Amino acid sequence: MADRGEIARRVFATCRLVGIETVAVYSDVDTDAPHVNEADYAVHLEGSTIATTYLEQHALIAAAKRAGANAVHPGNGVLAEDPEFAAAVTDAGMIWVGPPAATLRTLHRKSETKKLVSEAKVPVLPTFTDPETVVGFPVLIKPDAGIGGAGMRVVRDASTLAEAVASARREVDGDVFCEPYLPNVRHVEVPILADAMGAVVPFGERECSVQRRYQKIVEETPSPAVDAALREDLCRAAIVAVRALGFVGAGAVEFLLDADGDFWFLELTPTLQTDHAVTECTSGYDLVRLQLLVAEGGSLPMPGPPPIRGHAIEVRICAEDPAYAWLPSSGTLHRFAVPDVAGSFRPLPQPGLRLDSGVADGSVTGAHHDPTLAKLVAWAPSRQEAARMLASALARAQLHGVVTNRDLLVRTLRHHSFRSGDIDTGFLDRHPEVFAPLLSSVDAVRLSCLASALAGAADRRAGAPVLSTLPSGWRNVPSGSQTAVYDGPTGPVEVGYRMNRHDELAGWWVRPVDPEELDLAGLGQAPVDEHPPIVVVSASRDRVVLNVQGIRLAVLVHRVGDVSYVDSPEGSVTLREISRFPLPAPEAAESSLIAPLPGAVRRVLVVPGQRVRAGELLLTLEAMKLEHPVHAPSAGVVSSLPVHPGAEVDTGELLAILDPE
Q1: Which segments constitute the Lipoyl-binding domain (predicted)?
Q2: Which of 64, 127, 337, 661 is 20 to 30 A (C-alpha) from 373?
Q3: pTM tops 0.90, yes or no
Q4: From CA 484, how far away is CA 472, in angstroms rounded?
Q5: pLDDT for the residue 634
């Protein structure tokens, strides 16, 4: 298996089912990763970066030979679309689980692919390989060879086209082309399997319109915009495109679809798509098994498209912060738990939840890999049931240790426009309200803070060497209050509560605190406007039950060091307890630009001594397969530039010093 994470686990699950032994490859950071532990054999890859490990083709082929493998599955990343890797595998005497190298070479040039498909009478948007020949605006610039959305940008007038094309070429280090940009269209794809005997079987269609940075985060089948007649037209066009390109294996033919039912071919993705799980749920077929069958030279066992059973929706749970330009999040995943999951990595026998995950409790997310942690799928008799089931499971999941896009996914699934099927590729741009956190009401945040303080007190009392059964801060004559100070979602807050002689909550409050005055004597004094009374039903180190005006509410608290991860039916919040006497921290110069995340410096566009404008791009960081720009916060002069292209940086590391003018 020449890949890692969730896709490796997915392929291994089917291999175990059909009696095929498996070999995993792993880098240093993945020594104890789930995909390594689940393989029959594992081979270590020397190197410290993804380029020297999982993308080093010679090392991967050497690892396969060393383990005695007779086939290589490339996963669904960059290598799965690389014709040179496919050729190297077959030249080494092993089976390539994917389309032939010759087909991949054709698909590697998107403009050439579109030309061949157009000649087969499949609708295709006009393609302009020379910016001088562009007719009409806006246009979308796309890399001729590339995946993942890199280099794509919209240009709305001719005055900015030349610079945008040059910028896109630098970003992808290759050729680009332009095609008309169609706003308010859907991204629909037809998953297909084709064998060497000429059989091509489409599996309905998938709706993939909810995207960020041209990458899908919500997928479903069937599409709410496609009826039986349109489905037949899409599948017929997909079959024609597959045969025109000589494609064999598993893939997906991607289309743009407008409100009038007109569609245009985009590309043929020659991999087992990451959203294949929804198709498995509604078709009942194990697509990995069929992919392996075709790779061995077998014929597809079904005569035509299988019937669609119910509705399936998938979301990608990613380690990233949607509210901050999708900034990737790295670190230790202290807890990853999704309730009511019925199965993983293969078709479900009946409607329910399926979780395909590449991580587990204790997994470490790094800056060099895709931010996707897992794919959660709901399969139900109807679209409304699937959306409701999926949103509920996500909202109740415990995702602790890294920032994720969970709240955005829940709000999207519960949004009235999504529920009605009114979605397209601009959904997130039109609905900024889905970026709000689930735990947004003031009262819900206050209750979470109180629960964290009570759980912290219970934890300390449980570990006390003497009198551990007494309540925290107990006195014969009650005086003062129990307090804790947290760095919460809106800044530092003080949590305080007073207990009476019967160990009952006599009063409580949560109030903002000036971070520069945390050590003042005023802390711990109850304010005049205490919050409405509640009853503490029970409080332990990991679970607090509160009675709020007659309604009982259970709050789960997971403490890791000084951080509390608080989960309730209202949502989740992370609270870091602040010491009353913090140690002084070194201060960076006011003009310092520091790395917002760990990653590799990809491009440096300035030199020391150069004057820059406010907002000018200084350099870019590459993390989790995405490029993140670092702009000048104000006009000034670059006085220091300690990094260079290829340099690895950690969060908080100095990137540049900009002396403001």
Answers
A1: 578-659
A2: 64
A3: no
A4: 12
A5: 86
Q: Tell me phi and psi for residue 182, to 5 degrees.
A: -105, 110
Q: Are residues 392 and 513 in the same domain?
A: no
Q: What is the Cα–Cα distance from 113 to 144, expressed in whole angstroms?
A: 10
Same domain, 277 and 375: yes
The DSSP call for residue 421 is T
In a domain, 110, yes or no: no
CATH number, domain containing residue 249: 3.30.470.20
The count of other CB atoms within 10 Å of the CB of residue 383 is 20
pLDDT at 520: 47
Distance between CA atoms of residues 234 and 231, nearest Å = 5
Residue 547 shares a structural domain with residue 603 = no
Q: Which pLDDT tens digit goes with each residue over 104-142?
A: 999 999 999 999 999 999 999 999 988 888 988 999 999
**Co-location of 555 and 452 in the same domain:** yes
Q: Which residue do the tokens 């689930």 mark?
A: 438
Order the strands of the 482-488 sheet from edge to edge.
Answer: 505-512, 491-499, 482-488, 571-577, 563-568, 551-560, 543-548, 535-539
The two tokens of residue 267 are 């590309």
Bond into 123 cis (ω within 30): no
Residues spanned by the domain of 526: 442-464+474-578
CATH, residue 153: 3.30.1490.20
Neighbour count for residue 640 (Cβ, 10 Å): 16
User: Are 600 and 565 in a shared domain?
Assistant: no
pLDDT digits (tens, 9 = 90+) for 179-231: 999 988 999 999 999 999 999 999 999 999 999 988 999 999 999 999 999 99
How far, in Å, CA of 270 to CA of 107, rounded?
A: 8
Least confident of 154-158, 386-390, 408-412, 471-475: 471-475
What letter does residue 259 receive in the DSSP assignment?
T
Number of domains in the chain: 5
Q: What is the pLDDT of residues 83-108, one digit of tens each?
A: 999 999 999 999 999 999 999 999 99
* Amino acid at the residue 126: P
Go through 445-474 and write b for each residue having 16 or more CB atoms within 10 A of its CB, e for each that does not: bbbbbbbbbbbbbbbebeeeeeeeeeebbe
Query: Residue 288: what are its φ and ψ, rounded to 5°?
Result: -65, -40
Give the separation between CA 170 and CA 476, rounded to whole angstroms: 73
Segment holding 313, helix H or strand E: strand 311-318
Q: How many CB atoms lie within 10 A of CB 584?
A: 5
The enclosing H or E element of 405 equals: none
pLDDT of residue 107: 93
**Residue 319, domain member (yes or no):** yes
Residue 191, both tokens = 């998953």
Residue 60 clears pLDDT 60, i.e. is over it: yes
Per the CB < 8 A criterion, the answer to whether 305 and 201 are in contact is: yes
Looking at the structure, do residues 83 and 153 belong to the same domain, yes or no? Answer: no
DSSP character at residue 3? -
β-partners of residue 539 are 544
Q: What radius of gyration, in Å, describes the C-alpha atoms of the chain?
A: 27
Query: What percent of the chain is predicted at pLDDT more than 90?
Result: 64
Do residue 304 and residue 340 come from a single domain? yes
